[in-house]
Each structure stands twice: as structure tokens, then as C-alpha cells.
Specification:
Shape of chain A: globular
Strand order of the largest sheet of chain A: 4-1-5
Number of strands of chain B: 9
Number of domains of chain A: 1
Bound molecules: iron/sulfur cluster
Order of helices and strands of chain B: HHHEHHEHEHEHHEEHEEEHHHHH
Shape of chain B: globular
Distance between the termini of chain A: 9 Å
Distance between the termini of chain B: 58 Å
Oligomer: heterotrimer
CATH class of the largest domain in chain B: Alpha Beta
CATH topology of chain A: Alpha-Beta Plaits
Strand order of the largest sheet of chain B: 6-5-9-7-8
Radius of gyration of chain A: 11 Å
Structural class of chain A: alpha+beta
CATH architecture of chain A: 2-Layer Sandwich
Largest sheet of chain A: 3 strands, antiparallel
Structural class of chain B: alpha/beta
Helix content of chain B: 40-55%
CATH class of chain A: Alpha Beta
Helix content of chain A: 10-25%
CATH architecture of the largest domain in chain B: 3-Layer(aba) Sandwich
Radius of gyration of chain B: 21 Å
CATH topology of the largest domain in chain B: Rossmann fold
CATH superfamily of the largest domain in chain B: NADH-ubiquinone oxidoreductase 51kDa subunit
Largest interface: A-B, 19 and 19 residues
Number of strands of chain A: 5
Chains: A alpha+beta (77), B alpha/beta (401), C mainly alpha (184)
Number of domains of chain B: 3
Order of helices and strands of chain A: EHEEEHE
Amino acid sequence: MNRTGLHVDWTRCDGRGLCVELLPDLLGRDEWGYPLPHRSTPGRLLTEVPPGSVADAEQAVALCPLLALTLTTEAAT
Amino acid sequence: MNARPAAVATGSPTRPDTAGRLFVAGAGAGHEAHLAAYGPAPSSGTDLIRELELSGLTGRGGAAFPVWRKLAATAAGRRPVVIGNGAEGEPRSRKDATLVQHAPHLVVDGLLAAADAVRASRVYLYVRSGSGTPIRRALAERPDGGRVRVVVAPHTFVSGEAGAVVNAVGQGVALPTDRLHRLSETGLDGRPTLVHNVETLAHLGLVARYGGSWFRGAGTLEDPGTRLVTVSGDLPAGGVLEIPGGTRVADVLAACGTGPVAAVLVGGYHGAWLPAAEVDARLSPSGRAVPGAGVLIALGPGRCGLHLTAQIVRYLAGQSAGQCGPCRFGLPALAGAVGELAGRPAVGTEGRVRRLATTVAGRGACHHPDGTSRLVLSALDAFADDVAAHATGRCVAGGRP
Amino acid sequence: MNEALWAAGRASGVTALALLTASVVLGVLNRSGRPLPGLPRFSIALVHRDVALAATAFVGVHVLTLLFDPLARLSVTDLLMPFAGAFRPFWQGLGTVAFDVLLAVVVTALLRHRLGLRTYRTVHWLVYAMWPVAFLHAVGNGTDARTSWFLEVAAVSLIAVTIAVVWRLSAWFVESSHARQELR
Ligand code: SF4
Ligand code: SF4
């Protein structure tokens, strides 16, 4: 089982909110519009992505207008 | 192994202390005085990484990461780069400048020992403009000084963040960058890059000479060795001190001749407030009083901690590199809310401060929002009485909100 | 046959102009980060892309039909080299410029994940120059320029893009601009 994570490049993200719409179970928005994970994840990830949301996360990576999102996979330990 | 210097009680350029190791060669030491005090430079070839693991030396720039791990990770890559970081962006910190001024050769010894241990192809020293002259003079004195290239850091708070350091050396832009991978995997020009604070390197230079168990001759099990601290605030004599790891905060303050304090900000502007009742806590990366980059700011009795915190947060908001939305917009909002708390808070101001501080944490390319958040949340705890008093229009500190 | 080619060339050209206009407006809307009722942000991004691709397809039909049209006397070099054409070379040249820019914009947009943000964005900015050029080409080169239906399409397009650009430049353009206060 691999664990999938979503990383955001904060220097790029402009808070357009596409990712938040596609991943409502994982992300909300702060008052400036930037994605705010429902559960904070330590390290370099914005949030972990459960298997059921991977397709939506891929869609978000493809559609983010600022190319700010990256999916990471890690072998689960 | 060379002769070990006795722990000296004098020789520190700023004040005598009990565990002096870094300033044994005396104030403004040149290469000869340095060699006379510490013996010849460590020979490469000893298993430095193993000795470092034995020593328990951790990074002195703030993160307190085990030094040997970073070296081992960097050594695993191809053609690594080593950078000594003396940017010291923290405005209340003087330790790195003091070290570079008075013990530059120890820093260079450590830098070159680290470079040899990871087989680095390029070696840099990144220092504030004021440190450029002493470090260049020191390099010119040494036969091996030509290996080191000096890069000058701008005077901004984030210029010393590891990513900003690599960016400054590589592109001349001292701003943090987005990092998906560790610098030990890909840093300067995509090469594995080791960035160490100059104090860390000075200790490393001693471990390379005298070994890991010698290093543990001072300090505690949790925080072995010595560390430099910069003490400032409401006390008669602040300055840079070298103290054994695990020293009580109260003892550091006593060494500076202070009486009772209202609170101490431990770890600098990204640190946490320690209320007066807890000043007996020992400085330790894993404890209640986390030294960070070694900055201690004393708040005298009768001074308003909320007021000082508001000033600091406002400064930190101004130092946001403005690259990341939550930091760029969140810190000014947080500064405004903390300012309200220090003045005349409305109903709900405290809640807004807490919410904003929690919201910005962890949401930037560097730790600037996290550190600011930590400071603010610790102020809410340490100055809970003041928060309550301000809400009723008074100030515990005697009408000086 | 020639009549049909000529008619198809004109019709596809006008359609392309309308679709390009829609795509520009959707792009600006997308940039604002605001959803429409019933159309979430990611859908706007997708519709923007699809409309832009449809516009490009119609431009393709427009160019192809006129390549074979004896009156337009368009040659393959005209597709790349502006202002060298036989029929109203200046106005046709504008069409060539717009066509080439459009191709660059579409290709870089589709390959943006590989090219990186900077290239993609820089080229995408050219749209603000491309649309007026395409518009002038339509008005100046088109033989329907004085018919009322064409004038209506052109006028609506011009107004729509003007409004979008003025909005784009306004201070409250971005959805969260009210909340985004920097240090005073
Ligand atoms: S889609 Fe991209 S720009 Fe928009 S909020 Fe998400 S990461 Fe930021
Ligand atoms: S988190 Fe703040 S200080 Fe750090 S890079 Fe982003 S904007 Fe700059």
C-alpha cells in the first residue's frame, strides 16, 4: 500500500479554490481563499490523500491554474 | 588526538563563564593564537560522522536536528555542497557575529572538516555584511582558506532560512523557495547541500579534533556540549554567553545580573514565552525552554508582555517575504489582532488571535508563519492574566498597555 | 463549390471570433477565482479550455477552407509569414499573426505541466494582444464587415472583452480581495 499526499507550493498558490472544490472532504478555505486542510499534516504535505480521493486529487493537480500542486507517493511504513 | 584544552573560565570576549570552549583562543583570535589554543587542524580521515553521532551535537541554528544525520544524508549523494550559515536574521541574536568576529578559525575548521567528511566539491560561508571583513581576513591567513567562497547575506529575518541560504548563494535572492525534497537530496544547482549554522560548525571543528565523548564533557545527557546564547531585554548586562547545555534559564539570567522577571522569551522571535513561575526550566531542545537559535529576552516586572509581543508580531509580519498567501495576508491580520489585544480588545479578539495563529501555522514555504504562530500562542498562555485585565480596560503592568 | 468554400470560410471565421471572445471572458472569470451559479470553479476552468479548443478548431476550418478558396488565394506561407498575402495583405497579415499566437497559446497551455509555469503564463498573457489583432482582422478582412448581423456579433464581442478587461484591472477583481489586507 502506498500513501498518497498532496503538496502545495505556497509561493505559487493564489487561492483560486479549484482544489478545494474538488477535494471538499480534505480541504476548506481560509478567509483569504487559500486551501486549509481539515486535518493538519506534519511535514511538507498539505494533506494526506485517502485512496478514495486520489482521482479527485489528480484532477486538482491537473487543473490548478498556477501548477502549484504535486502528488507524492510514499511506501507506507 | 590532540591535547584537550581545559575548560576555561576566561577568554570569552563578552563575559567569563564556566564552560568556555569556543573562545579559548581569546578575543579576535588570529590563526596563530587559534592553533596555539586548540592545536593543529583536525586531520580528515577520522570517522567524523561517527564521532558526531557519539557527541550528540545538534544544529544550533534553531531546528536542533542531529548534525551527524544531515552529514550522512548529504554524503550519500553526488558532488555535494557545504554552506556555513552565519546570516543570523534574528534581530536580537549576536552569537553568530560574535563567533565569526572572535573565533573565525574554529568556524572554518568545522566547515572544512564537514566538507571533507561529505567530500564536498564546493564550500561557502554565508555571513552578514558586518562579518565579511573578519571572515575574509581569517581565510587569507590560512593555507586552506582559498577553498571557501564568502557570500554576504542581506539583513532580513528570513535570509538565514536554509532554503533562502541556498537561493541566495545560487541565485543571489535570499528568499525561501518551495521545497518538496530535503536539501540533502537536492539543493544548490540540484546537488545535495549541507547547510549548517556557524556555531554548529565551530562545535563540529572541536568534535573533529577531540572526539564525541570529549564533547559530552559539558552539558547534560539531553543537551550535551555547550551552546551560545544572546541575552537581552530588561537586564543590567546582556550579551553573548557560552553556557553548558541544560543550564536553567534562571541561571542564565542570574549571570546577567538580573533580579526577578515577569517572563522570558526563549528562542527568539520564533520562540515561546516562559512565565516567571517556570524560569527554573532547563534549556534543552526537547524540554519546556527550547533554546532555538539561543535568543533569550527578559521581560522586567511591570512591563506588558502583550505589548512587546504585539511589537514583535508586527515586525515579523513586515518581514514576511510576501510569497505565500497565508503568510502574506495572515501575519498582518494576526499582527492587527494581537495589537488589539495589547490595547483595547473587543469581545472575541482573543478568539480571533487564537484562530488566526492556528490558521497560518504550517502554511508557507518556510517556517516563518509557524514560528510567529508559536510566539503568539505562547503569549496567550503566559500572559493570560494580562489578556483578562486588558479586556476590562486595565493593564496588569501598571497602566502601560 | 467555390461558393460553398467561401461561405464556410466566412462562417467559421465569425464563429471563431465569437468563441475566442467567450474563451477570453471565461479565462478572465477563471482568473478571478469566482464560481458562477451552477458552475463551480473547476468547471469554469474546463469550459474555458473546451471553448478555447473549439475556437481553435474553427480557426483551423477557417484557414483550411480559405487555403482552397481561389478568391482568398491563401498560401501555406501566409500561415506563417504575415503581410505577404495576395488578398488585402495587411488585414490578412493580422489574421496570420493572431493564428500563430493562438497556436503558441494552445500548445503551451496543453503542455504547461511539462513546460513549467513561467513559459505557460508568459505566452498566455499574449492573448490580451492576440484578441484585438484577431478582432481587427475580422473587421478589416471580412467581406461581411458591413452586414448588420456581423456588426452585431463584433459589437457584442468588443463590449464583452472590454468589460472583462476593465473588471480584471479593478481593485476588487479577486474573490478574496476584501479580506486580503497587507501591512499598513
Ligand atoms: S487550485 Fe491551485 S491556486 Fe487554487 S487554491 Fe488550489 S493550489 Fe491554490
Ligand atoms: S512563509 Fe512567509 S516568509 Fe516564508 S517564504 Fe512564504 S511568504 Fe516568505
